[in-house]
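Hi C.,

You asked whether I'd gotten around to modeling the 368-residue construct. I have! Everything is below, sequence then structure, no commentary in between.
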Amino acid sequence: MHKSKNIINSAAECFSSSDRTGSVFTGFDGFIDNILRPVKNRHDSNNFEPINDIETFSERIFSGAGKSINIEIVKERSSMGGNGPIMANSLSLLGNSTDIVGAFGQDEILPVFRPFTDRCRTALTLCEPGITDAFEFNDGKVMFNYPQNVLDISWDLITGIVGIERLKDMIVSNDYLALVNWTMIPQMNGIFSKLTELLSGIAGRKTVYVDLTDPKKRSREDLKLCMDRLLEINGHADVILGLNESEAAQCAAVTGAQTAEADIKELAENIHKVLPLRAVVIHSIKQAAVCADEGSFLVNGPYTPEPKLSTGAGDVFNAGFYSGYIAGLNLEQCLVTGVCNSGYYVRNTKPADKRELIEFMKAFAEET
């Protein structure tokens, strides 16, 4: 039997047979996502041909340089967004309990978030959500963010609304944490410092999953400080850093990791050498890799050239990997639960529950 098929089948079997679930505290963002398609050709009032790749989209825009241009946009839908809500929603569908603090509405949680927050053990809102206009293409996505509502999220705002004792109780009562969207919360480094102080006074080591969200717009000094903060947190908890290829290259650059290798497994190994966290995870469109003290692994994912939805796929990958980790799977098997969770999502425009994910994993094994 092919090695890849063995790995996928073993992951499906272990995930199916495990009755281990976890409680996860997630923070601190929240967005409303507008899923958009740019029009290439309009046939009639009901039918159009979309622009299906980013290069063609960029060429269409460039053709207007020095002149002007009109591009029709079709909004497919508006939905709950933000790294925290999307990841936590998938975690809960896979059987984990969730507590979340985020940007879901100024004084009360907005209806778009309610189907998810009603399933949370606790859901508290800090402020109005940000807005994302997400242009979907077969080869990726282009997201225009309006993060003004979340830019002021800080430790003082969080503790002022939640209360320091209640926040501490929420963190103490969860064995797992997910801290996401570092890029669009400018004061996240300060939040990391305060959480390090809090974690240092808690008995036992929790696990903290961190996702940066493309940090290109942040200064290299801020990103390097973030890496230092993660090492500080790792002194008191097990930090898993989840990255896409672009984020991994940026982290490698600011930490001095070698970046010549194109292989994401080698890139994960190089980052882990200079950033010895619990694990460094890198996912791309077609593969995912992880490096930790026990070794490094690479798996191929269920790639599709025509995804129905890619906005949020990275967050759903994170939830799949983390759910596998919580269930007691080894790191290679966690990569499988990650890529299959995102694979299901981009095909079905919704996250899987545990049964759906296991069935998808088994089907993927048969195709391998």
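If it helps when you're writing up: The chain has a mean pLDDT of 96.

Thanks,
B.
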